[in-house]
Amino acid sequence: MAPQDMFFEEDEDNCPLCIEELDLSDRSFRPCPCGYQVCQFCFNNIKNNMNGLCPACRRPYDEKTIEWKVVTPEEVAEFSANIRKNQKKRALDQRQKEVQKREAEKENRKNLVGVRVVQKNLVYVTGLTPTVREDELLKTLRKPDFFGQYGNIQKISISNRKSSDGHNQSLGIYVTFEKKEDAQRCIQAVHGSQNGDRVLRAQLGTTKYLHVSS
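Structure tokens predicted for RING-type domain-containing protein (214 residues):
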């Protein structure tokens, strides 16, 4: 059986045509002598807009043969009790679905812990060789003629990439902008540009997924 296939049981309390629940007046309504029961809405639709035939025996509907079963007080009480029961069941089912959804989301977040995800306002730049002292570098990179020209900067982090002989080869620079649009503008301007004899590379940076419990 394919995943979308299913079995279901017909509910005698539902109209077989529209599958809506039969109310108390519908349950007492017998439009055809064969006993096939439909709701009054579907009956009127068949009679006025369709062929006017009973879906079961194909007999023409006749106003003279319509029967109305007398509803007893016990049936009224049972109907009201069933309504309350169904309302409670729907509310319980809804709560269970919400709990299952929260559990699934919680499990998904657990699976993401430690996974690196793209941060759209973070730019990672390589290939830059500094021309100023290390203690001045962060201030310099924030200036309007450097990364500051692309937007407001939240944070700059620098990692030293060393060559095999132990000397600094180049820097890895992480620039966190306030807006992701500023990060994109920075990447478009910086990526592929020259820095002396080096070509700068710029791309969106990644960060470890961090879930903050509420």
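The mean pLDDT is 82.
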